Amino acid sequence: MPPKISEGQNEAAINAGVDALLGKGWNLVNNQLEKNYVFKTYTKVSDMHHVIATRAKSVNHHPTMISTMSTLKVIWTTHKPPGLSNKDIQMADYCDEQASSIGTVEPSETPQCGPTPSTM
């Protein structure tokens, strides 16, 4: 199902941008672009959150971000007018650039929670 395009946007350009992002691991869910990034440390999760938030503030376009110890889920959509816009495409690309710079890892490379070894 094609995404809803925000009013006033170039439909062909948005669809091409979405297709390119889908090829880079983004998912289209309920007219939102979503991606999970995995990092080796919580500090890198926090760094990623910070660089996205800083850019989002400067372009006045803010995502939903959900973090865990080793992951950051980023969700982009446009609320007014509703749908996907060029800002969503640009910011998703920016996220990928920053994730590459910060350094993502495979989920198997992240620390696992478990019992602390005893120090007897």
Overview features:
two-stranded antiparallel ribbon, Gyrase A, domain 2, 4-stranded antiparallel β-sheet, alpha+beta, 120 residues, 20% strand
What is the helix content? Answer: 25-40%
Just name the CATH architecture of the domain at 28-109.
2-Layer Sandwich
Backbone structural class: alpha+beta
User: Element order, helices and strands?
Assistant: HEEHEEEEH
CATH secondary-structure class of the domain at 28-109:
Alpha Beta
Shape: elongated
Mean pLDDT: 93
- Share of β-strand residues: 15-25%
How would a crystallographer describe the biggest sheet? Answer: 4 strands, antiparallel
Q: Specify the number of helices.
A: 3
* Sequence stretches where pLDDT stays below 50 over 5 or more residues: none
Distance between the termini: 59 Å
Give the beta-strand count: 6
Oligomer: single chain
CATH fold-level topology of the domain at 28-109:
Gyrase A, domain 2
User: How do the strands line up in the largest sheet?
Assistant: 1-2-4-3
According to CATH, the homologous superfamily of the domain at 28-109 is Transcriptional coactivator/pterin dehydratase
Cα Rg: 16 Å
